[in-house]
Amino acid sequence: MDTHTSSVIFGWDPLWVSSIVFIITYAMVVTEKINRSIIALLGAGLMISLGILNQETAINGIDFNTLGLLTGMMVIVAISRRSGVFQFVAVWSAKKVNASPWGILFMLSLVTALFSALLDNVTTVLLIAPVTLLITGELKVHPYPFLFAEIFASNIGGTATLIGDPPNIMIGSAVNLSFNDFLWNLAPITLLIFPITMLIIYFIWGRHMHAGDEDKQRIMLFNEKQAITDPRLLKQSLLVIFLVTLGFLFAHQLHLEPATIAMMGAALLLLLTSINSGAEEQSEHVHKSFAEVEWITIFFFIGLFIIVHGIEHAGLLDILAKEVLAFTGGDLTLTAMAIIWASAIFSAIVDNIPFVATMIPIIESMSSTFGGQAQLMPLWWSLALGACLGGNGSLVGASANLIVAGFAERAGYRIHFLKFMLMAFPLMLLSILIASIYVYLRYL
Amino acid sequence: MTMDIQSVLIPTIIIHPGMYVRDVFTECGKLNIHALPYYNEKGKLSGRLTLKNIMKFSCLPEHMIELAHLLGNQMSCIENAEAKAQEIICNPVEPYVRELSETISAKEPLIKALAMMEKNETSYIFVVDEEGEYKGLVTIQGIARVMSSLGKICPMNSSI
Description:
Number of helices of chain A: 24
Keywords (chain A): Cell membrane, Membrane, Transmembrane, Transmembrane helix, Transport
Subcellular location (chain A): Cell membrane
Number of domains of chain B: 1
CATH class of chain B: Alpha Beta
Shape of chain A: globular
Helix content of chain B: 25-40%
Distance between the termini of chain A: 40 Å
Protein name (chain A): Inner membrane protein YbiR
Number of strands of chain A: 0
InterPro entries (chain A): Arsenical_pump_ArsB, Cit_transptr-like_dom, Diverse_Ion_Transporter
Strand order of the largest sheet of chain B: 1-2-3
Largest sheet of chain A: none
Oligomer: heterodimer
GO molecular function, one term (chain A): arsenite transmembrane transporter activity
Order of helices and strands of chain A: HHHHHHHHHHHHHHHHHHHHHHHH
Order of helices and strands of chain B: HHEEHHHEEHEEH
């Protein structure tokens, strides 16, 4: 049986009870006083123990495709990064522009955007930020513009593909959208937003950047090959990343879901890197690789899926959907615009994952109003663009932003919340304006 | 020769508030040890100072550790190494104090000291008396030194 909701919980309507659990969970996640995975799991536990869902229904609410895709990619990235490939590319690209500060800023941002699109933006900045600090230190230029540009590049790059940013993974899984769907619909607009953003960064900082010849020479003396710590692992990682990308591109023809492709890629890379090792060494390698999966994110997702399923079950999301439609008068264009702007502003201020998890069933329930699931596509792309690009609006807008800020602070360059937001928020709004025009012209 | 904690105990100075990094470096260098105990203002054993921690936080930004394999002689940061070192040794110890790790009583068996070092992934352990007062430390090198000085003669190694 798929439905189980007590008609009354301690004399209260389940709709009220589930809404209270949902609001408290949201508020706790926003305050960041307690780890978000703990809050989400407690909220999920309450949804079950208060009788809003039974365990079977709760498990049905978990999107295992999202979890599988995230976990598989995390394992692949955890193993690949040990080869030093990211740092190799970063140093190599810096030398390609003869160590000119603006050239380096542009190249590191481009590399960040590309890796963020193909892998994930958190790992990308985790590996590019240290190289940036090292290079700017040697060039004797302030790292802030570089890190600022990389934050934007990571979120713009992540917007372009199914696997680039968690909101896209969630939307893709819920609506059964392929890697190619995202590539075809979102990548084109990121190809416009990225250069415009870089142009603005050039006019603000880039044109004033200068470095002495001696300092540039130091960069040219870096040997990028020293970044490659394990050439064999590098070849294995590149092979698997290539195969996984091919898998995503031909997923439809292969009749495979993205989670299966990512999980098979992870298993293949584990196999390749375990061959010729003894049983104990294999166990250690596999254990280390699994340990690097961001379990906080995975358990946060599990809890969140259950909580959202709880409020959906109790009828709250239907009410919210009706409110949104009443506000927009059931007009598709207005609804798409409301979604893209609201999700951008919301994602700039708080974590975009709970927001997207809540919005997915809300949008799904609008299909009867707009005449079927196919008519909802402008709304899905609006949600993806708003949630991913909105992450650029503030330092807490995306995990990647916080990672860059953390590295900078520990290196003695604190990125101030307000200073960042004063520049980032308008720039984010500009990207949303461009995205809105794109959605309007292409889909409405 | 007995193999107990007393036999390998290394008495050291105690670091107090107001002392400098230089004091830690001098004592550790002299005795070939990695850490020293720290007594707080109330005269209580409350922490430790380790060479690794001081070096890490005063000389090595996180991104340099991450990119250790890329560092070379061209680095600008090595230009003023001497001036930087002079600055560090005159820093007060307080910012570098770490939490106290597990201690062991002088009456416990040496194998327990070894096991605790392994468990805590360190190469030393502080030794205290019944009142919790610091008596010295035991290092893995100290234990190896005592073991190597045992009388047994090893068979001839043909490869030497």
